[in-house]
Task: structure prediction
Amino acid sequence: MKVLEYGKIKSAEIEVSPLTLFVGDNNSGKSYLMALLWGIQNLGVSELISSVLREETKLEHELIGWIRAQVALACEQGEHIAQVCEIEKELQAFLREGLRQNKDNLVKKIFNSSDVKIKDLQIELKDLDKISLTFTKLKDRWGSEELDSLRIKNNTGTEYTIKLSEIEWGYQNNLIICMILSLAMEISIGEVNGIHENIYLPAARTGFMLTKDIINKAGRNAAFNIGVQQEEMIPFIRPINQFLDVMNDLSFDSKGDRGAAAIAEYLENYMAEGTVEMSTLPNKEVLYVPAGQEKGIPLRIVSAVVTEISPLILILKHKKRVKGLFYEEPEMCLHPQLQQKIARVICQLASAGVKMTLTTHSDIILQHINNMIRLSERQDAERICSELGYDSGDLLKAEEVKVYQLKSNAGEGTKVEELPCGKNGFAVPTFNDALDRIMEEAF
Result:
């Protein structure tokens, strides 16, 4: 992803990895970058190209022509496998034009405001040779091949069943274009699905956890009570609205997958020192049960550590599918010992396939990540893991981590640079400079 003149950021070029960190100065644009990535993944590919789909451009006709050619081969052969890399240039041009037209509206929707500006946004599609589509002509229940329908299946397992006549009329062509672009962008930037599987954990999560019931009540009053004079309300940004929706939609009866539940149990046992659960009452009040006790107590009277990590615990315990987490300042309110433990959780989630994107000021979190990278490269890694209490799920490879430093330059905008991974891991100059200054004062 490339951005130009976005908020305070002069320019940035970001490659998303299983674990991506934004570090550096306060008020430099770290959250802006993370919110943009969140918006691209959560608002869906149709949000990025909708205006181009309505224009009937030459590019669209070229893509539709390719789709119809694959359909014709499938009708002739019964089944046909098409390689998406055949239309790489057309797809890239189509996405580029869509972003040119829709970038301002995308940013407006993310922030619920027209005050945040962006001059340019580009997403480079890559590795399209990894994507194939299988077109299969379907038979009816009596085995006849005259049935006017087709199944399109991609190599990740997603299937669409459509009528051939609808392709001929053009009704389903835009759906197929969106499907192909979604697959291409998933490889390049992460899954673009438009649903709550890429979840944002805002820096102010404690405040929202303590006031979510009041916020929900205020929202209901504003939406449904007639004849009540309403004051003008300033909206939250969309990632925060999503966070509140996710927390409100969690159900006591739903369960996360086994791996996520194990990580939640680690958070409860070694950080919260008790369990975090929702009551079965309609308001879904969140309760904390200290270890060794049976009665739960509300979050408003427990320690900041518990309120900080309670959203993550609840999501891992009760959200059925979590594809990605956008985590602002996971070190918030945590003692250095607990910062290392939350870093371990971050590494475990990334290793388990949850795409992690963080902003952080914690050199402890970064050092733990460095340790896990170095440990993964050792021939005696298994022995050291056993001695230190780690396992293979804690380890990370250097190529699975990207670190970007944001440094403010007064009057010139924020400079964004990718930090290299050296033999000792990632070194963050803005962290080290601050530590050096305070050591000089100590001397």
Observations:
- The chain has a mean pLDDT of 85.
- The longest strand covers residues 401-409.
